[in-house]
């Protein structure tokens, strides 16, 4: 490199750096502006509010079955029968390493293979929990297994419908009306092609609370 050309080449490099930096800044503001205008809810976390108070996000599950060890040393899973339940969750508290279902701050799946005895025990415990709650067999697989993230907000239509009688009995509601509510919450395939119909558990439970009186028998 010719020392005589260094000042010119440094100036060119400086101009390119400034131009690229400006492009990045402009691009960031343009994309942010478009997302805020066209996809405001998604860009801000898909938050759900009730009476002006944020109660959750449609992207994060909340109603997760609780796992604990019984006095005899066996694994026991409990569910709140007054609400529709999401998938099992293996997320933990990062500070204590204790199980904290649906902890969106620590996304993790179980990573257990199909031959792992812990997975088998957990699945059996989940099946037993739903059977105790009156859910008829066969119990949909997504109710007794976890997803990869640990806080999947959606379940299949079959999984939601399987819980209708459980929730209706716990709340003293008309099961037919509760079933109709579930079916009204089914979200179809993306662009009518991709994925499978699902039900967002948080939105379903919020609708259940809001329509409690009209669902009574």
Walk me through what this model shows.
It is a single chain. The protein has 217 residues and is an alpha+beta fold. The chain has two domains: 7-35; 57-215, no CATH class. The chain has helices at 6-38, 40-43, 117-132, 157-162, 164-171, 175-184, 201-210; strands at 47-50, 53-57, 66-69, 75-78, 154-156, 186-187, 198-200. It has a three-stranded antiparallel sheet with strand order 5-7-6. A hairpin with a 5-residue loop joins strand 3 (66-69) and strand 4 (75-78). Helix 5 crosses helix 6. The radius of gyration is 24 Å and the shape is elongated.
Keywords:
217 residues, alpha+beta, three-stranded antiparallel sheet, two-stranded antiparallel sheet, 7 helices, 7 strands, 40% helix
Walk me through the topology.
Elements: H1 6-38, H2 40-43, E1 47-50, E2 53-57, E3 66-69, E4 75-78, H3 117-132, E5 154-156, H4 157-162, H5 164-171, H6 175-184, E6 186-187, E7 198-200, H7 201-210
Helix pairs in contact: 5-6
């Amino acid at each position: 490199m010719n020392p005589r050309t260094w000042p010119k080449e440094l100036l060119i490099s400086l101009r390119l750096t400034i131009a690229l930096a400006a492009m990045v800044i402009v691009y960031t503001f343009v994309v942010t502006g478009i997302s805020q205008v066209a996809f405001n809810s998604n860009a801000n976390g898909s938050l759900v509010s009730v009476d002006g108070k944020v109660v959750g996000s449609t992207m994060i599950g909340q109603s997760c079955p609780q796992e604990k060890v019984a006095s005899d040393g066996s694994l026991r899973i409990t569910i709140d029968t007054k609400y529709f339940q999401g998938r099992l969750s293996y997320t933990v508290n990062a500070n204590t390493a204790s199980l904290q279902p649906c902890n969106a701050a620590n996304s993790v799946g179980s990573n257990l293979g199909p031959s792992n005895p812990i997975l088998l025990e957990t699945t059996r415990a989940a099946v037993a929990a739903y059977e105790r709650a009156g859910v008829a067999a066969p119990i949909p697989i997504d109710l007794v297994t976890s997803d990869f993230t640990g806080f999947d907000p959606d379940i299949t239509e079959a999984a939601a419908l399987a819980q209708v009688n459980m929730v209706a009995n716990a709340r003293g509601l008309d099961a037919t009306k509760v079933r109709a509510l579930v079916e009204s919450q089914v979200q179809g395939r993306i662009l009518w092609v991709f994925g499978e119909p699902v039900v967002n558990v948080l939105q379903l439970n919020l609708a259940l609370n809001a329509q409690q009186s009209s669902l009574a028998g």
